[in-house]
Please model this.
Amino acid sequence: MDIDEILEKVADAVEPHRGGGKVADYIPALASIDPDKFGLAIATKDGACHKIGDADECFSIQSISKVFTFSLALQKVGDGLWKRVGREPSGSAFNSIIQLEHEKGIPRNPLINAGAIVVTDHLVENGDADATIEMLLRVLRDHAEDQSVDIDYEVAKSESETGARNRSLAHFMASFGNLDNEVEVVLSAYFRHCALALSCSQLARAALFLAFDGKDPVTGERILTPQRCRRINAVMMSCGHYDNSGDFAFRIGLPGKSGVGGGVLAIVPGEGAVAVWSPGLNDAGTSTVGSIALEALVAETGWSVFG
Ligand code: DON
Model:
């Protein structure tokens, strides 16, 4: 199988759909991104990166960052994590507050906004959100083997300025005693990790360990135990696209995570990590063209975990 030839076919499949979907505008700094952008990168076991289109252009990874914070929190608190966040699909929007009251402030899973805020709370020590972000940047730079990985602080500011919904979620959870740190401290870390700006190439490389049982196949570094890695992939498969998770599993059949910046990360166990970016979104906040590209990739490669 020649991956570069397959990527040419994926590019052809995507072409008629370029610019499809609706660019997120509830975070004003994201609204001005060119909807025609499209890039895709595949990081593989041998350290190679196969790419097409705008794969080296940085974009706001938004909710895809929740995969990395989830992984760090599992490493830090282990199974204790599940006392304060569940692992069931929500069937609701990423920023929904509906289930939180019924379920007494325990969010459904670590990939919806409320769950990711609890995960971030676990990563803040001594009320120091800056230290959390420095740690996260160190980890991502190491995983990506690229010290230039950074946060887009303009996006973080824009998100904070328009963050009424996330503040509501956080205060609501605090009222049930499900936050250890002050709401603004946790959110200052949350807004910044959502504003991480990576290219498809950097993102695919940084997530490669998730395709190899928690071990980076290039450096040999063990990042997660195989069991925890499986669990992250399971939660990505069932919850990675909110109320669009079923459709994503149906069409693509890979553990994945979307972000409202238009990125999608997909993990191909035993093969590699795929990052795709195209800013137009469907109603659930998953990249429209990104999903079409992944569907074409899976059709060509047979990479669906369902065979
Ligand atoms: O908190 C938010 O609303 C954004 N920072 C992240 C949302 C997001 O990416 C949803 N994913 N598709």
In short: Residues 62-63, 94-95, 113, 159, 166, 194, 258-260, 285 surround 6-diazenyl-5-OXO-L-norleucine (CB under 6 Å).
